[in-house]
Design brief:
Order of helices and strands: EHHEEEHEEEEEHHHHH
CATH superfamily of the largest domain: Gcn5-related N-acetyltransferase (GNAT)
Oligomer: single chain
Number of helices: 8
Strand content: 15-25%
Shape: globular
Distance between the termini: 27 Å
């Protein structure tokens, strides 16, 4: 398969947003009624931290098959100094092309360009058992935390060259636009696109009925309502929950697979 990359032209905006909508339509968080990633792409293009030189589309046989969009982010150390980094997202691959290496190729192409432009590292909130396969490392290895000091496996770091983060640690900040989206705004924005059947997430109950009481308690204490949200947790984090054992983790893996989710290492 021949994949080509080019900067996203304005004429592709609607197509990229519709592709993003299709790719993330079934990606669920418990407090949402509709995906908002296509709205996020729309807003990121006009925010102050947007980097147009890294706004790439991937094409297969002349058709858009993927998209990646970057913004500037920063690490703020204990002395109050800021160190510029990058974040990307959404990273989108057209559903029919998923699993064919387009996302990985798109990232690597953009990372090479980002290194050439002088950026030191990419930091994201991502699927914790996927991104380490392509070189990301957990933020705790670099003593990098969220703004409130939290650390979890979904906070991931990709140094763009050896020693890129030597002597740099602290709290990680992204553009406020990522946290400013509302479901009301997403629903209104979604009217630009063809009607789509609402996504109905898979209840966590399909997992709970397969676990023993200790494991059920462990999952319930996390507050998960759907299987979709488990994707934000690494296998390591689930395994460390009090009450989870090897059999329980294998059950989680099996149930996720039965319902079409790729999860775990």
């Amino acid at each position: 398969m021949n994949i080509t990359f080019r900067i996203e032209p304005p004429t592709a905006h609607y197509a990229v947003e519709e592709m993003t909508r299709d790719a993330f339509w079934n990606f669920w968080e418990d407090d949402r009624t509709i995906c908002d990633e296509h709205l996020l792409v729309h807003k990121l293009r006009t925010c102050a931290s947007f980097i147009p030189e890294l706004n790439y589309i991937a094409e297969v046989e002349g058709n858009i098959a993927g998209h990646i969009i970057f913004t500037k982010s920063k690490i703020k150390d204990s002395a109050g100094n800021s160190h510029e980094t990058l974040t990307f997202g959404p990273l989108t691959v057209l559903p029919k092309f998923q699993g064919k290496g387009i996302g990985k190729a798109l990232m690597q192409h953009a990372f090479d360009k980002a290194k050439f432009l002088g950026f030191r590292a990419v930091i994201i909130y991502g699927i914790p058992d996927y991104y380490p396969r392509i070189g990301f490392r957990r933020a705790i290895e670099f003593n990098i935390t969220t703004p409130d000091g939290s650390v979890f496996d979904a906070l991931l770091v990709y140094p763009l060259y050896d020693g890129a983060l030597d002597g740099i640690s602290g709290k990680y900040y992204i553009d406020p636009v990522y946290a400013e989206l509302t479901q009301k705004e997403a629903l209104e924005f979604d009217k630009k696109f063809p009607p789509k059947k609402p996504h109905i997430p898979v209840s966590i109950d399909v997992l709970l009925k397969r676990l023993d009481l200790k494991a059920v308690k462990a999952i319930k204490e996390k507050g998960f309502l759907t299987l979709d949200v488990i994707k934000s947790q690494s296998e390591r984090e689930i395994a460390l929950l009090l009450g989870m054992d090897e059999n329980a983790v294998e059950t989680v893996r099996s149930v996720m697979r039965e319902h079409g989710y790729q999860w775990g290492s």
